[in-house]
Design brief:
By secondary structure, the protein is of the alpha/beta class. It has 7 helices and 9 strands. The strands form 2 sheets. Strands 3-2-1-4-5-9-8 form a 7-stranded mixed sheet, sandwiched between helices. It has a two-stranded antiparallel sheet with strand order 6-7. β1, α4 and β2 form a beta-alpha-beta unit. α1 packs parallel to α5 and α6 crosses α7.
Length: 246
């Protein structure tokens, strides 16, 4: 299943190459970080942290983190295509970002190397064992360090993309273990599911203290040409989690 997902993710990551110039222009013109992310991260970014971004994708968030105050960002992604394109963009913009191709959990980094571990926006769906993932994230944090997650709400797989009314898909359940993605990145990738309670408990079990959890009606990503009723403020579509190592 991991091999199947890697193939799907490498194929999806070609988008970051095809749209290289558009993404570069976006990075130049403004921050990809959402207002709710910046509000929660402001106290940490004010101290010029060293950041590790788990599952860094196209890397625009890394450039935005540096622009918002981070001293450096080390991105980790298991797509060589994504990491290579992200490094090229960061180099063009002179951003203090570096990328490593690796599978997670099991980041090939020393313990206590980061003041902030940042992740989300389509990251947790690739993790079949969240307690192991959370322990790996926690070991990277220095004392007083922060884990920040901004991610799709666990209920999102249930919502249809109907335009008239939000509906629940009859082929999915909130407490299911996984589902096959039939939208993005497609190619039959298996997305792992976890309830919000399971995510929170995984972070707590890793020895971190939950400082803030918020649910948001806005999705972090909207495909072009889709105006789903599920995104019009009545349902949870994303969440933020802030945890600290005491």
């Amino acid at each position: 299943m991991t091999k199947r997902n890697r193939v799907a993710w490498e194929a999806a990551s070609q988008k970051h190459v095809r749209e290289y110039q558009d993404l570069l222009d976006q990075a130049r013109s403004g921050s990809s970080l959402l207002a709710c992310e910046l509000d929660l991260l402001h106290p940490t970014l004010r101290s010029a942290p060293d950041v590790v971004h788990l599952q860094s994708g196209h890397g625009l968030d890394d450039i935005a983190l540096v622009a918002a105050g981070a001293r450096s960002v080390l991105g980790i992604d298991f797509s060589e295509t994504a990491a290579t394109a992200a490094q090229r963009r960061a180099d063009e913009l002179g951003a203090a970002c570096r990328y490593v191709v690796a599978e997670l959990p099991g980041a090939p980094l020393r313990d206590e190397c980061a003041d902030l571990v940042y992740t989300g926006k389509g990251a947790l769906i690739w993790m079949p064992d969240l307690p192991v993932w959370a322990r790996d994230a926690a070991r990277l944090l220095r004392p007083g360090g922060t884990l920040f997650v901004h991610e799709a709400h666990p209920a999102v797989p249930l919502w249809t993309w109907d335009d008239d009314e939000p509906r629940i898909r009859p082929d999915r359940g909130y407490f299911a273990r996984s589902h096959v993605n039939d939208t993005f990145p497609a190619n039959g990738a298996v997305e792992w599911q976890a309830s919000l309670g399971e995510i929170i408990n995984a972070v707590i079990s890793a020895g971190l203290r939950i400082a803030h959890v918020a649910e948001h009606p806005e999705p972090f990503w909207r495909p072009d040409g889709v105006t789903a009723a599920a995104w019009r403020g009545r349902l949870p579509n994303s969440f933020s989690l802030l945890a600290q190592r005491d």
